[in-house]
Amino acid sequence: DEPLEIAQTLHQGNILIYTVGIGDEVDKKELLEIATDQSNSYHVNSYTSVKDIKNSLLGRVCTDARMKDECDASNTDVMFLLDGSSSVGEKNFGIAKNFITNITQRFEITSGKIRVGLVQYGTKPNTEIELGSTKKILDLEEEIQGVKWKYGDTMTAEALRHTYNEMIKRKGKSRKRAVIVITDG
After folding, report:
1. Which residues pair with 127 in a beta bridge?
2. Distance (Å, whole) CA 164 – CA 19
3. What are the Cα distances from residue 89, in Å, to 47, 49, 107, 112, 121?
């Protein structure tokens, strides 16, 4: 699984990519190369430490998309790529879902200004929440929490390719776009 080629395609499409690596098995160099910029790459030691980067990541996404304090922007899509591989484990998968829920609570999704989607990946990616399908923050939270852990290998390139082909390419280029990859491998 070689995600760098598809990451370059996403970069050329003016899509901001943020990476969150969790644990000792993460290839930090690769995550730096996947991210749009070095400052868009995060690393924490454990899933319980993910909450420590929430404000920094949210601040970066909001600033990069030129949003106001509460991420109240027009025409912005945020896709989360959530690693659901076997190495994550069910408990850590729940922590990652809570992290995503906490970040999205600050987004203005009711008006469609910000559209949120979620792809879970392991051996194969699966769109769990279609981009912009949910217009109420409580419904979005419920959908995120309802995502079931998938298992499989960590195929990050396949997840990025899926996101590009199925979500971003189809949805047009008139919106600002960010992809947040959360992985432990």
Report:
1. 119
2. 16
3. 10, 16, 28, 33, 13
Quickly tell me which residue has 């949120």 as its tokens: 116
pLDDT tens digits for range 100-133: 998 888 888 877 788 899 999 999 999 999 988 8
Torsion of CA 22, 27, 32, 34, to 10 degrees: -90
Residues sharing a CB contact under 8 Å with residue 141, sequence separation 6 or more, in sequence order: 101, 104, 105
Q: Whole-angstrom distance between the N-terminal and C-terminal Cα of the chain?
A: 11
Residue 134: its pLDDT value, please?
87
Q: 2 pLDDT exceeds 50?
A: yes
Single-letter amino acid code for the residue at 9? T
DSSP state of 165: I
pLDDT of residue 151: 87
Q: Where are the alpha helices (DSSP H) in the chain?
A: 4-12, 28-34, 54-64, 90-104, 137-146, 156-162
Distance between CA atoms of residues 8 and 24, nearest Å: 25
CB 155 within 8 A of CB 126: no
Per residue in 25-53, pLDDT (tens digit) is: 888 999 999 999 898 999 999 998 988 88
